Amino acid sequence: MDADRREDALVEGFGYTVSYDRVFKSLGSMSLTLAMASPMLGVFVMNSLQIGYGGYFGMTWGWVIPAILYFPWALGIAELASAMPVNGGSYWWVAALAPPSLSRPLSFITGVTNFMNALTSMASFGWAIANSLVALISIHTGWEATNAYTMGIAIALAFLWLAMTCMRMQDSNTLYITCALVTASVVLVTTTLFLVGLPVTHSLQHLPFTKASQVFGSYSNFSDWQKPVALPYTFLAAAWVITGWNASTAIAEETHNARRVVPRSVITTYLTMSVMGFFVCLVLSFCMTDLEAAASDPSGYPAFTLIINHWGKNLGFAFLLIVLVNSMLGGASVIFMVSCQTAAFARDGGLVFNEKLAKVWTYSNMPIYSSVLVTIGGVILLFLAMSPIASSIIYSLAVIAVMLMYALPMSFRVFHGGRWVPGPWNYGRFSIPIHVYSIISILYITILECFPPMANWTGATFNYNWVVLIFALFLSGVLWMFKGRYTYKGVDQEALDAWRAQEALPSTSEDDIEGANIVIQGTSPRGSSCTAGNSVHTVVKGLKN
Fold it and tell me: Which of 54, 153, 249, 398 could, after both became Cys, cross-link 124 (CB 3.0–4.6 A)?
C-alpha cells in the first residue's frame, strides 16, 4: 500500500471522510510559501525597522541571530506535522495532545483564535502589498495616495486571490500549482538579479562600499529606545519576514506522502527564506553608505530608494513593480492556506454553517465557501485601515496570535501524558529540549512584540498587540461558554486512543497493518450511537511507515 493510501487511511481513522485529492509534492509545497512570502520583498519592507533600531547591526546580526534562534520553531512544527498530518494544524494538535478534559475547550479557543488570525492575516498581507505598491508609485511619480486608495487596492487584491483559488486543481500539473511554481521561480530569479545587479551597478558607478568592519561591527540607534530594547527590537524584522514556512501544514491532506513531505517542506522553506534574506540584507548593507539618510527616508522604504538611485527611475521602478506584482499573485496562497484551516475547524463543528464551510469543491479541490468567508472577513477588516490606530490593529493579531498557535501545541507535546505518538520525522531524545527551547523563545519574542515602537508613545503609536490578543482570547472563551460547548464536537478521542494503541504494538508488516480492523465500542463523540450489534468499525491502516 503506497504512502497516499496509508495517509488517507489515517485521516479516515481519525473519523473524517477523505475530501481532498493529494496534488502537492515537495516542490509544489515549498513553492506555495515562496509564492506568497518573498524574503527579498519582506526585507525591503522591513529595512527601515532594521536601520532605525540597529543600523548595520540590524541588517546583519539583527537577521542572523534571530534566524538561528527561531529555527527550533520550524523543527518543532515539522515534528508535530509528521505525527498528525491533518489540515487543522495547531488547534488539532492541541485537541490531540491536551488532557481529554481540556481537549474540547482548549482546542475550540485555539481554533477560534486561529480563525480570527486567518482573517487578520488576509487583511494585513493585502494591506502590506497595497501599501508597498502605493509607496513605490509615490517614489516614482510623486503622487500621494490616501488610505482610501490603498484600501481599494487591497480589497481588489483580496477578490483577485479568491478568483485564483477557484482554478482547477485536481492533480500536480493543474493551473493553480503551475502558477505557484512560476511565481516562486520569479522570486528566485528576481532575488538573484538583485544580489548580482546592485553591487555590480554600485561598482560601475564608482561608489564606495561600506567597510566590512562597519557592516559587521557597528551599531547605530535612531530610535528613542535605549540599547537593551532597541537592539533586540531589530530581531522583529526577521520574525515578520521569515514567515509562512508553516503553510504546508495547512494542506497536509492535499500533499503526497504528507508525513515526510510536509516536515521536509517546513524546514527547507525556513532555511531557504533565512539564507535568501541574509544575502539581501548583506547586499543592502554594503551598498547603503549613508545610514542617516536611509533612516530618515521620507517614503519609509529606503531599500526602494536605493534601488531606484542605482538603476535609474524607470529600470528601478520596473524591477520593483515586477517584484510587487509577483507577490500580488502569490497572495492567493494565503487564502488557500487559511481556507483549508477554516474548513478543518468547521469539519469539527467549530463554526456556523459547518457543513457548507467544510465542503470541498471537487473542481478546485478547495473548500470554496471557507474561501469566500475568509475573503469577506478580511475585506471587512480592511475598512479599519481608514483609521491610523485601527489599521495597526490589523497587523496586531496576525503578528502575535501566530506565536500562541506555535507555543500551545508545543507545550502539550512536552507535557503529553502518554498522548504523543511520533511520526517518521522525529528527533528522539532531542524532541523535548527542542520544544522547551521553542516555548521559551516564543515567550520572549511575544513580550518583545508588545513593546511600542517609541519609548515616548502616544495613543496613535501605542502597540495594541497584547490588547488585541487578550480580547481575542476573551471572545473565544465567551463563544465557548455560549456556543462551542454545545455544538463543537472536537476530535474523535476514541479514534485517537485506537491509533495510539495500534502504534504501541510491535512493528508489523505492511500487509498486516493494512488488514488491521479496530472495533470501537460505545458512544462516539461525533454523535454516532454504537452497540455490540451496531459497532463503529474504524479501520486504522498503514500507520507504520
Answer: 398
